[in-house]
């Protein structure tokens, strides 16, 4: 009972450490692992990363991200544009202008949103309470940016660019082509090592070394003695069965 109680306490302590760590993981980590990075803008605390979700609609992408981590607020469902607001970033999912079958996932830090977006533009998507907190009660939100798909019309303060090697290190996409290698066992490997068995590549099989002299192969004996198969001796009339000593 005591061991069970201690084991339960260990599990509870482990969960208390793991669950907050999982909850603290940014939703951007999920996007990085699943979609290729298309463009980068900003630096430092003001960053914007754009990923492409091929052959997926805006509501489909939004649902995947919401199922992974629930946002503080989600805008109404739309096939053209949706917003997801998290504690440290704002995600804008929009239909790709060059291919309507694709969706663009723009992950903006809150500092980037404050310094580039227009609060009046976001009023049509987010609650007033969220906007007030996001733009510090009107202190920010005087830009004219509306998203990557319209970056040439509503320009951000800096220019978007194709990801560099340094950008890829900061936000590496996991959809790149990768190569691997297979290592074969060396021909000079010791085949008599303990635990070695048959090898499909060499055709050799392992063997068991028994006791006895190595020079007299015809008189090798096992280290184990085979038990005798004779029946136990029975004393008639006593009603007892005794084993041979």
From TrEMBL:
<protein>
    <recommendedName>
        <fullName>DUF4247 domain-containing protein</fullName>
    </recommendedName>
</protein>
<feature type="compositionally biased region" description="Low complexity">
    <location>
        <begin position="191"/>
        <end position="225"/>
    </location>
</feature>
<keyword id="KW-0732">Signal</keyword>
<feature type="signal peptide">
    <location>
        <begin position="1"/>
        <end position="23"/>
    </location>
</feature>
<dbReference type="Pfam" id="PF14042">
    <property type="entry name" value="DUF4247"/>
</dbReference>
<feature type="region of interest" description="Disordered">
    <location>
        <begin position="145"/>
        <end position="245"/>
    </location>
</feature>
<dbReference type="InterPro" id="IPR025341">
    <property type="entry name" value="DUF4247"/>
</dbReference>
């Amino acid at each position: 009972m005591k061991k069970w109680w201690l084991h339960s306490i260990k599990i509870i302590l482990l969960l208390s450490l793991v669950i907050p760590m999982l909850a603290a993981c940014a939703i951007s980590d999920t996007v990085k692992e699943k979609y290729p990075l298309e463009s980068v803008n900003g630096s430092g605390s003001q960053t914007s990363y754009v990923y492409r979700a091929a052959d997926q609609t805006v509501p489909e992408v939004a649902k995947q991200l919401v199922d992974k981590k629930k946002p503080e607020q989600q805008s109404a469902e739309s096939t053209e544009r949706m917003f997801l607001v998290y504690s440290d970033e704002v995600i804008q999912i929009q239909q790709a202008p060059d291919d309507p079958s694709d969706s663009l996932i723009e992950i903006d830090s809150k500092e980037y949103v404050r310094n580039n977006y227009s609060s009046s533009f976001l009023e049509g998507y987010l609650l007033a309470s969220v906007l007030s907190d996001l733009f510090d009660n009107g202190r920010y939100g005087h830009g004219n940016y509306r998203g990557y798909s319209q970056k040439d019309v509503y320009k951000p303060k800096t220019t978007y660019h194709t990801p560099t090697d340094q950008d890829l290190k900061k936000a590496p996409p996991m959809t790149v082509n990768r190569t691997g290698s297979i290592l074969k066992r060396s021909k000079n490997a010791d085949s008599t090592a303990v635990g070695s068995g048959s090898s499909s590549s060499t055709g050799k099989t392992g063997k068991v070394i028994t006791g006895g002299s190595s020079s007299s192969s015809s008189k090798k004996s096992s280290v184990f003695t085979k038990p005798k198969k004779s029946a136990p001796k029975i004393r008639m009339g006593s009603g007892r069965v005794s084993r041979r000593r």
